Every structure is written in C-alpha cells, then in structure tokens.
Amino acid sequence: MSDIQEISYFIGTDDHDAIDPTEHRKSLAERFARIRAITKELAARLSVEDCMLQSMPDTSPVKWHLAHTTWFFEIFVLERSDPHHIPFDPQYRYLFNSYYDAVGPQYPRARRGLLSRPSLTEIGAYRRTVDEQVLCGLLSGRWPRALLDLIELGLHHEQQHQELILTDIKHGFWGNPDFPAYRMLSVPEIKTAPDHQWIEYEGGRAMVGAASAGFSFDNERPRHAVLLPSFELGSRLVTNGEYAEFIADHGYDRPDLWLSEGWAWRSREHWKAPLYWLHEEKSGRGSPERVFTLGGMRAFDANEPVCHISYFEADAYARWRKCRLPTEHEWECAAVKSGSSRAGTFLDSGLLHPGKTMQNSGIAQLFGDAWEWTQSAYLPYPGFCTAESELGEYNGKFMINQMVLRGGSCATPRDHIRSTYRNFFPPHARWQFSGIRLAR
Amino acid sequence: MSDIQEISYFIGTDDHDAIDPTEHRKSLAERFARIRAITKELAARLSVEDCMLQSMPDTSPVKWHLAHTTWFFEIFVLERSDPHHIPFDPQYRYLFNSYYDAVGPQYPRARRGLLSRPSLTEIGAYRRTVDEQVLCGLLSGRWPRALLDLIELGLHHEQQHQELILTDIKHGFWGNPDFPAYRMLSVPEIKTAPDHQWIEYEGGRAMVGAASAGFSFDNERPRHAVLLPSFELGSRLVTNGEYAEFIADHGYDRPDLWLSEGWAWRSREHWKAPLYWLHEEKSGRGSPERVFTLGGMRAFDANEPVCHISYFEADAYARWRKCRLPTEHEWECAAVKSGSSRAGTFLDSGLLHPGKTMQNSGIAQLFGDAWEWTQSAYLPYPGFCTAESELGEYNGKFMINQMVLRGGSCATPRDHIRSTYRNFFPPHARWQFSGIRLAR
Amino acid sequence: MSDIQEISYFIGTDDHDAIDPTEHRKSLAERFARIRAITKELAARLSVEDCMLQSMPDTSPVKWHLAHTTWFFEIFVLERSDPHHIPFDPQYRYLFNSYYDAVGPQYPRARRGLLSRPSLTEIGAYRRTVDEQVLCGLLSGRWPRALLDLIELGLHHEQQHQELILTDIKHGFWGNPDFPAYRMLSVPEIKTAPDHQWIEYEGGRAMVGAASAGFSFDNERPRHAVLLPSFELGSRLVTNGEYAEFIADHGYDRPDLWLSEGWAWRSREHWKAPLYWLHEEKSGRGSPERVFTLGGMRAFDANEPVCHISYFEADAYARWRKCRLPTEHEWECAAVKSGSSRAGTFLDSGLLHPGKTMQNSGIAQLFGDAWEWTQSAYLPYPGFCTAESELGEYNGKFMINQMVLRGGSCATPRDHIRSTYRNFFPPHARWQFSGIRLAR
Amino acid sequence: MSDIQEISYFIGTDDHDAIDPTEHRKSLAERFARIRAITKELAARLSVEDCMLQSMPDTSPVKWHLAHTTWFFEIFVLERSDPHHIPFDPQYRYLFNSYYDAVGPQYPRARRGLLSRPSLTEIGAYRRTVDEQVLCGLLSGRWPRALLDLIELGLHHEQQHQELILTDIKHGFWGNPDFPAYRMLSVPEIKTAPDHQWIEYEGGRAMVGAASAGFSFDNERPRHAVLLPSFELGSRLVTNGEYAEFIADHGYDRPDLWLSEGWAWRSREHWKAPLYWLHEEKSGRGSPERVFTLGGMRAFDANEPVCHISYFEADAYARWRKCRLPTEHEWECAAVKSGSSRAGTFLDSGLLHPGKTMQNSGIAQLFGDAWEWTQSAYLPYPGFCTAESELGEYNGKFMINQMVLRGGSCATPRDHIRSTYRNFFPPHARWQFSGIRLAR
Asked: Would the pLDDT of D346 be above 80?
C-alpha cells in the first residue's frame, strides 16, 4: 500500500502523531456525512432535467458533479482499500473521470450533457452505496491513516464541486429565456457601501504558503519566504456602482486600458458589461436594469460587489483607476495580518450572492463574497513537487495560462477556505463569482 | 379569414365537394386523436433525461419535438380560429418555433438541448390542452373547411416528427458509451437476400407529381410531364453484405469513386463505414462485428439493407458498381407502375429497423425499410409556388443543396408516404434511415 | 496509347473524318500559340508581387494559373506523347496539380499563395519550354489525332483560367485598402438601359446539350430531349439600378425572400449589397457611391448589369419581383432560338466590365457581360459518363451542391462560349461576374 | 514637446549628463546607419516573392518588417520632430502599424501577406527617405535629447525585427515542399558536446532588473530585490541527442509528463518532435534523418542544442529528466555571476543556427545559440509602469499568458542582448530559436 503513503503530501505529517486515532476517525466520519449531505441538498432543488444541463464545455451538469465526486472516493479510497473492490458500474471509471490520465481515458468533457444514462436516480444510488462503503471502512478502524488522508482530500474536493454546482447551474439557467431561479432568495435591503479607503502594509520579508500542519493542497506548498515592497490594498471589494462608472466612461471601448489578449476576447465576445448584467436596450451603457442571480432576475444594486468579471476586466478596471490588482502574496499577507477571520458571505449563509459589507474601518471582505483576481500567474511555488500517484494530476498540470484568485466567494463553503488557498482560472473566465480588490 | 384559404394549396380543392362535411370532421377527429397518441407513445419509453438529449445541431430533443408539433396546431389552427386565443404560454411561440420567420424569432436551434424548463411534464400538459381545444373546435362544426385543412397539414407534419423522434434519439443514444436500446427488439432470423436483378422500364413521356385530389405537400406539385429515357432499376435495396464488398475493395480510400465534396467530408469526418457500424478493431475493413440499432447493439446481418449512409456514399457505391442512382422521376414511375403498394417495413410494424425482402421477382422494397437517395436535386417543380402565408416557409426555402429521397423507411408511418412524396436532406446527412437502390 | 483514345469523348468523333489532318494541325498550332499568348498578356500588367496574391482559398495566385495551365499540357499531352518525357521539374507534378487524384497528390489549395518559389521567372521559362515542345510535336505530324484532341481540350481549359485570372486578381486587389486597378479602363458614357420586357417562348419538346460534332465538355453531353412548359424571359440582364430598388426595399432584411441557407450566409457574412459595392457610410441602403472594378474604383452606374452576386441573392431578387430564375434548359432554348450570336461584352473587348445593351427589342445580353444564374442544379445529363482516364475528373466530380450559370461574361473569351456551355459554382459564390436574368 | 519626455523611461536619465551631446549624436548616427543597413542586408538575399510570404498569422512578410521598422521612426521620431511632417504615404500609417491603438487602427495582422502593393521597391524608397530625414535631423543638432532617445528605442526595436525576419522566413520556407535555403551555410564539423554538469548557486537576496543607467526596455524595470533559494543550473543547453532520448522514451505519448494545456496542443497539432525535424517515415521515433535550417535541409546533429520547441515541450522534457526549468531570476543571477560575457553564437556570426559549445567547465551558452524558456510568467516587475504615450503599448499590454525567455539566440544581434533582457512568447510558440536549460 506504499502508493497511498505519498498522499500524505496533502496532509501535514506533523498532525499524525498529535491526534487520537479514534477521535480522528469519528470526526472524519461526521464530516464526511455532513459534507456529502450538503452536496445532495444543493442538487435537491433542481429537476431531473436541470441536472443534465451543460451550457458550455467549461461547465458540467449537476448530475455529473454528483457522480464525479463519488467516483473520487470510489477510485482513490475504495479501490485502494481493497484490491478486490467490485465497482458499482465498471463504465463509471471512464464516464466520471474528469482528467486523471493515470486512471485511464475520459469521456469527452464537452459531451457530459449528453449522458441521459445513467439516470439521476442511478447516480443517487451510486452516492448512497459509496457513502456506506466509505463510512463502513472508515469506522472499522482497519483503514490506515493514509486512506483517511485520502478521504480528507476527497472532502475538500467535494467542496470545490459544491461551488461549481452553483456556478454551473447559474450559467445553465442564464441560457434559458425564462431566466429560472435556482431558488427564491430574499433581496437584501439597500445599504450604501462604506467609502473605499486605502489600507497600508509595510514591505519586507514575509512567509507565504501552507505550513506542514493541517490540510492544504499541494499547490499551497512549500511554505517559503518572499520579499514584498510596501503596498496598499483597497478596504473592500469594488462595487457594482463603481464598476458602472468605468463602463459609463467608455471603459469597454478604450483599448489602452486593456491587455492585448483581453481586448481580443472583449471584441470577439462582444463584452460590454459583466456577465449576468441585463440591459433592456442593447446599447445601454452604465448600470443595467437587472442582474441575473441564483434567485432569478433582480434589480441592479450599486452597492454590491461587482462579480462575474474576467481577469481582463478586473485588470482594465484597475488601470482605469490608476491602480493595479494585488499580487497573491500581498493578499495573503494582508489576510494573515487581519487574523484570517472568515467574516464574509459564504455558501453556508444561503444567500448565494455576494454580500455588502458595513465595515467602516480596516480591511473588509477579504474572505467570501467574491473571489479576488490577483495579478499573480498560477505557477508552482519554489520547491513544489507533485505526488507520485494519480493525485499528482490534481493541481500541477494546470500551472500555465491561469491567474490566481484568493479569498473564496458566496458559493464557497466557509470551512473550505484558508489564507493560503490558491484558486485559479484562465484570465477570460467569467462564470465564477470573481470580483476586484484594488492595490497600489 | 382569407389567409386561411390558401392553405388549401396543400389539399386538393377537388376533394371539398366530394366529401360529406360531418363525416369529414369525424374522420379527421379520429385521425387527430390517433396520430397524436402515437407521438406520445413514441416518447413514453424514454426517460425524462432521454427526452432532453440533443447530440448535434441537426437533431432535436424529443421534448422539443413533442412541443413543436403541438405549437404547430396552436399557432396555425387555434390562433387562426380565434383572434382572442389565450396562449398556453406566451414564451412557447418563441421557444418552439422551428424556422417560421413570419411567426417571429426562434430560439437557437443548436441550443434546444439546453431547455431544462419547461419540463417534460409541462409539455405533456401543453399537448393535452391543445389537443382538447383542437378536438373541441373541430367537432363543434363551426370551423371552416380551411381550418380543417390546416389540421390535416398538422397531422402530416406530426408524422414527419414521429420519424425524427426515432432517428434523433438513435443518434443521441449512439453517443452514450453504453449504447442504450430505445426498446427491446426481436432480432429477425437470418435469411439470405434474394439475388439482385435488373428491372427494365421503358422510357417516354410520363406524368409525375401529385394530382389535385387528396393531400400532398406543396413540393409535390404541380403534376407535370417529364421525358424519361429507358432505364433499369435494381430489384431491391443494396444489402449490408454488398456494401461491405465495396469497403473491402477500398471503396473509402479511392477518391476516383467519390464526388469531390464527398471526399472532403469523408476525410474530415474519418468515414470508413456507414454510421452505426462498429468495428472493434479500428482498422477493420469490411463487415463490422456489430451494428447499433434502436434495439441496441446487434450482430451484423449481411442480408439487411444497408442504411445510414450519406448521398456521397450511395453515389460512390453506385459508381463502384458501374451503375448510378435513380432520378426521382424514374423512381416515381417505377413506384406507380408497381401499384404503389406500400409493402415494406414501416413504423407501424414496430420493427424499427429496415426489413429484409423475400420477394424473388419483380421490384421489391420501393416503400419502407430505407429511404432511397436519388440523384435528383431538391428543386421546385415547374410552376411551383408557395402559399402566401407563413406556411409558405414549410418547404420552399430549403430548395438548395439538398438531394431528394424517396419511399419512406422503417421509421415512417405507412399512411404518411406516397409515390409522389419527396423527402430531402443535404448530401452529407447520415442519421436518417437512408439506403441505396441502383439504377442504370 | 489506348488511354488517349477516350479523350475523344470531348471532341465529337464525327469531326475526325471531315477535316484535313494537315490543315487541322496548322490551325490548332495557330490557336495554341494565340491562346497561350493571351494568358501571358493577361499577367503582363501585374507585378511579380501581384502574381503571388491568394486572397481566399477559392482563388489562386496568377502565377499558379500560369503554371497550372502549362502543367495541363505537360501532364496530359507531353507525358502521353513520350514515355521518356523528362519533366521540366519533377516537383511541378505535385505543386501545380489542381485536383486530379489520378495524377497524384496535390499541394494544398489554400496554400498556393505561399509558394514564393518557383519564381514567376521560372514559371515563364516553364511556359516557354512546354510551348515549344507542344508546338514541335504538334507540327511534326507524328502525333495521333487523340493527342491533338487533348491539346484542344487544354486550350479550352486555358481559356477557363484566363477568366479566373481576372476574377481572382480582382478579388485580391479588393483586399488592398488602396484598391489598385488591374489596368486603366475607360468609363463608358451614361446611357439609360432599355425597358425590361418579357419575351415569350412556347413550351414543348426540345433538344438540349452538345451534338457530337465539334468540341464540347463532357458535362454538355449527351444531347437529349426535354419537355419545357411555356415560359417568358426578361429581355435583358437586371441592372444595378433595379437591384438597388431591391436593397432600398429592405431586400437584405427580409428572410421571407431568401432561401434558408442563403439567409444564413447573408447573416454570417453580413451581406448588404453585391460584392464590390462600396458605401462610404456603412449603414447606407440602396445605391453605393462607388463600385470596385478591374479599372479601380468607379462611380456607381445604375444602368449597368448587376453582377458579383450569389445565387442566393439572384434568387431573392427574383422572388421579390414575383418572378423566378430561368432553368438552364429554358436559357439554352432561348439562346438557340436567338441564333446563338455572341453579341455581348467578352474578354476580347478589353472592357473587363459588364457592358450595357442598347437593344430595344427582342432578347439581349444572352451572351457575355455577366454569367446568368439558372435555377438548375449542376447534375449529370441522362446518360452522362466520364472519361476513363484522369480527365474523367475534369467535371463529373463536382456535380453536387452547385448551380449552373450560362452565357459567359465580360471576362470570358468569346470563342470559348456556346449555347450548350454549362458553368457552375456553389450558390454562395460571388467573386465571378455573375448576374441575373428573370424568368416567369 | 512634453510627450516626448517620458520616453526617457526607456533610457536611464542618469546617462544624460554623463555623455557629451555631440559625441552622442555622432555615435547614434553611426549606429543608426549600421543597424538599418543590417536589416536591408538580411532582406537582400531574398527574392521579391520571398519577401511577401506570410505562412501563419504569427509571422509577417519580410517586406512588412522592412516597412514597419521604418514606420516606427516616421511615427515616433519624424512626426514628433516636426508638426508639419509630410508623410511618405498617408496610407502607411494604417498599413504598417503593428498594434499601437493610440496611433490609430491597424491593417489586419493575418492579412499582411496580401499586400502586393506597395511593392518592395516602394518600401526600399520609404526606407531611404526616412533614413535620410532621421540622419539629417539627428546630425542637425537641433533635436532634443528626448528625440534621440526615441531613435535609440527605434534601433532596439529594429534589432528585434531582424531576428523576426529570420525566424519568419524560415517558417515560410518550411511550408515550401522544396525546402529552400535562405542562404548557403557551412555545416559545422561533428564535435561531441561536453558532459552535462550541474553548476551550483547559493540562494539569498539578489537584485534583478535593469539599473537606471543605459538603455533597457520598460519591462526590465524597476530593478528590485528578490529572494532566491539555492539552485543548480545545467552547464549547457540540452542537445538534440538528449532530446531524442526523450522522444525515444515515448515522451510525446505520456500525458503525465505534460501540462494539461500542452497535451491538448500536442494532440491537436500532432506534435511528435521539435518543429523542423523531418522523419522520412512518419512513424519514426527518436532522431530524424534531417533537420531544416536557414541553410536548407541538413543532416541531424545530436550535439547541437535542441531548439524550435514550445514551452510545453521544454517543460515536459525537464519533468522527464526529473528536473525543472530555471526561473528568470535564477537565470539572471547566473548570467550576472558569469560576467555576462556574450560568448555564444549570435546573428553577427552569420551561422544562423545554434552553435555547439566546447566549454568543459563552468556554465556555458547562457547567451546566444538558443533562447532559454524559463518557468516565469511574463508579468510586470513590482512598481512597473508604462510610458504615458503610445509607447506605453510597447510591452505592457502583452503581460498575460506568455512565458519569459532569456539569453538571445543565433538570430539575435549580439549588442541587443543583456542579462536583464526579457523576451516572451506564448507557451505554444515554436518558430523561434527556443531551447532548454535545465535547473533543479
């Protein structure tokens, strides 16, 4: 079972001695049950037909997310726990493999929406069966610590897909002329956002990245020192109203504000505003009448954080303000300094939309509400190395042509995020809850 | 209500006097109920998820077919019958309009598979509601003859979509690595196909096209004279076994046998055999091990008619045999001469796969089993004119870059087909039950 | 040398006895020298750089035309005349093969503009060398009649490329923001076009296609009988002014006037007027300020025939006029009846632009000025068969998804055209001198 | 003339006082004449037709390079020197603008090969005219220092295009089945490459980036401190022979070695070896028979540095060797430590192909031979800001989705390169002389 060992890369080995094994198993089982139930709950409001939607190759049907997260446990935990494991369905190995070449070939990503079979009901049974087997093995006390660490990894993986379930179904519903709501959401009352202020940070030598204790993804490691110049960060996320000023000032029509490749995307895709803004009159510039949310169409609220913008838009906005975006290290240092308190709007709140801060002093909204584009490319940390097993494919092979986002969003489970957490998307991606914090 | 009048173009006005109005209404109502029920039945075996499948832009989800055929009655019958007609759902006018620009804009064809809403249940309610309203109006006796003729047209339209439901779901299931069956089908016993013989036809002046009595589509009119040289037709459809000889003789690798544009398609799409043939070893030449049918995977049967081939393949095969394909007029004359008896396998048989003829003399399989590609381009007959209303868009605007097919297939309702019936598809289309009859 | 024999398919064998062999050789040599010289002359006004232009995959560089027409004589005449023929350059077999799979593989069509080598100078030497060898063999008296027939074919082929040289360079220059002129052309004085009248033709049985005497392409054969209904043709080509009325009446914005596929092209390509019309203000509807010609930009002249339109536009225009386009057989019968006198503007005139007729009665402009789109698909005549040799690829393999044009244009050599001549292009093609004659 | 001032961003202002103005003018004039002459010389071996070649949108015709580098001086120097400057041709402002939106719209990049006019002769005249005007103004002594700095910038810009002329024509000739040589090159004798050794570097705080004295591009600034861990660099570039081992070991068939996006490129483009390697048998794995060079086809030499590979290939190779690529800062520190002596093969040598080192100890080939892919994304240095004028577009707007290359190549002018020089290309680019140095 030596190939299980290296997965401990994800979990600091320091922890292993510190924790009572029985307590650890119990606590893990409890979390397993809870997190898996949340995923199921997220899908519960959707019809069988909704769960089949795949509106673009970047997104996946909810049914596929439900199956793939289960596949993860079956392939990486159950198969390793028992060389005689009988697969729930041998075809699933292929159908629900996302991108693990070492596991085998993959059903084409862009065609996931064409799998009417297996049915949602069958996927439900798949989930129940795997859940039982995992819990049974876990509680048996016979599984080695390395397998438990794989379950830990699987839960963090599951939480990533919880967020994707929401962002993907939002995009799927956006393509329907009736603009369906994922569920009824109460519309927050109108409150004026606090002033945008600058928070100063002194430069110097700083440590970034995840320490060896506790769970973290391989891409957060190793912890290492960096040199930072002095910098300032905006006190809160940029609001819809502020972003509308950029549009009103012809921000989408001035190539000097844009990266060259961003301008090409804007032109090809006819971007004139963030994704999900709806101008009744097409030529409308500035604030739209309505914005599409997981609660359906809602009146435009100038005080909310702007989101669903690409890196290119975030960067152009910052340039227009004569500022820039933070680097991921600047962001991390500010987060650590702020105490890393995860105070913003997360999935757990049920709001499913970025919240407004009322905080008048200090730095706000570092966590939750909307992911913050940084000007850091998603690259390996010095000394980064991947696990030898299939799980080496988890993060490393995507380290090109993507930018780092930090802090989580209103669709992220609160206990999933960390100061060292590195999310990443190509600079043109817009369907995530991605927003802007300024730096200078 | 003058705009209803011209629809009588589809129905020979000669009929109007000949038939007792009350009898006509009763008989029409009976057929309406029966044909609409068949459509529903065709969908009944499919899961909610299956009904959402759209595997390529040319195909449509079954749910969409169910809705669109209903839309046809609502827009062209109910709306015209009552200026105050309250739509079942105002959005449907847009969502389920196939291509009638005169009715209004259309939801993009290629995105029909992304409509998780309205649900299949709602479409069921739509069908029931419209059915009741049509039957009620029809039996009331207050509807003018022109409206009745529109119902007649709607029923023929419905039957066209019955065939498409089957060909489209077949294509959708083909994309699933489990190759689901639409339903269990009994596999016919192995019988050797009768010899391929040549049937002679004398040339001369012949009348083709639909007479003014009885229903026909506008594209079958007007009836007119043509000059035919003497010709011979193959006594039956080309079989899988015969077609496999073409493949074994490198038919897919010899550009001299192919139309230039066909060769380009073959190269771009990597055609090596008819659609739905499955060679376990990719390089396999000649007969495959298995063929995908609406009953799932089935062993290759050399005696069945070949089908699911493009015009390009039919034409290349004929050239390889030093023959050609028939013209549509040759086919029609042979069909008329044979008595137009619709003896082949149709939808009604429930076989859902082309049948084998046992007929040893004379011409066989003119009707049913597989559509026969002709070497005639789909063009207007001399004197063709379209209806002035929206229904003018039914056929005429497709008269370019398509070839005529004749005779119907195993997925065509038997009472839908005629000797004068002109089906049409672009020469690269392969997902219909399209086969080959030779001529020379 | 049996494989040379079948080429006589292009030349009626009836001729062979009738003509004195020595006279025939002399006359053929004289025509060979004259026609080859014209091609050279057409290129002489262009710079070395102009001759490399390939502005889209459908067009070819002038240098390529010069080489390919020479290749035709080398491959089909010189190689067959002498099994020990030493090629001018062995690579040319590949580089300048247009589409003859039987001759061997072909340099990719879309990349012809990337051949900076061989140079134009080398192609000039190639032409001179092959010309000498052909003339030498031809005048030697030792070549069989079949080889002479191949030279005849090569000359007709050469003339087709003379027209393409002009249409291709016109398209190439159109892409240059300076709109260069191919050469200075005198602008014809303004004359009002005669009224558009209807010329009646009685229907009945008619013979169409080329007789066995004299040269014709295989696609014009065999001569056969057709039945024609009575019909009327417009007395002249449709003018720019008449076409501008169609545009002013929103002809490009009304889908009901267009074939469905044509509407898709118009939308994708943003067609708002014929190719080469230039509206200074983009939104301009109706007559443009200027039109691009081989003489450069020229003021719009409402009385000239409209040209550079696709079949889709011709068809939409005819529908808007409540007329239709002629069939190719109607056109041919009218041409024969008119005496087939080739009275219009041809390449020989040097005008290089469609001319205006002044003829006030009878049918005008059947020949020359602009090719006339017919509503006939380009299909084989009954009994058509191709030559067995490589030359079988000359025409037959293009008989799909193309429409027939008749009558020649201002870029066609006058002695190249015939009443039975069938030109063909896909319905979306616009870069030829293609115009409209109405029928009803 | 305030807008000229900021260009001094490119030139350290410290220099201004230190240099005698007259001497500076003279020396600049001498360099201007020399560098401009080199460009002309590079094009002199090419035919008029060669100079029109554009084999892909990324490359440009040599004629375009000749014009654009001249345009740079006309727009940024002559226009600014004299508000009444009469343009050589007003259209050139548009035709030869590469990407400066602030200067105005640009002729589409992908269509540069379609400009047969202006002719190469006219571009020659354009060069001579602008050269005279620049020299005249420069020597007049009346131009302010800021204008002189713009000339300096223009010369560095010119040198960048000298390299592109060679890489672009190489790619253009590669598409010609005759594989023409740019010019005859002597083939170096076979010498065994020295062993690959590891050179150790101690980590710590280091300064990187260009100091304020001397010319540098904006992207090299500001100079700033970084923290480096200890590292090792390969003693020389990776050779063809070493790279062939990677291929022989199925390096192109193992997705685990590749970045995910790199694997997609490899699959779509069918990469099996570096660009310009020619295997006679397509399936050949390992060393090819021949390699295409600017001297035409040449036998494979295992001891030469591998080049013409993408970042994806460099990265996969490094992973296969269980190493990694250097960061740009590691490379720069090593270069500084080595004394920055530019000892490798540069454009000046006339070899036009990467050279082989014979150096047996210490680090070799840091400069020249082949650009070295680093694992650093091309991003702004901390505190980077762009010039306010049009020249702000020079570098900054490309800082996304590109990777940094260091050290120059055999096509780079020796006096163009520096230790701080940052070249950049998208990770899939292969047509530059780009190679590999390992790190760990």
From this structure: yes
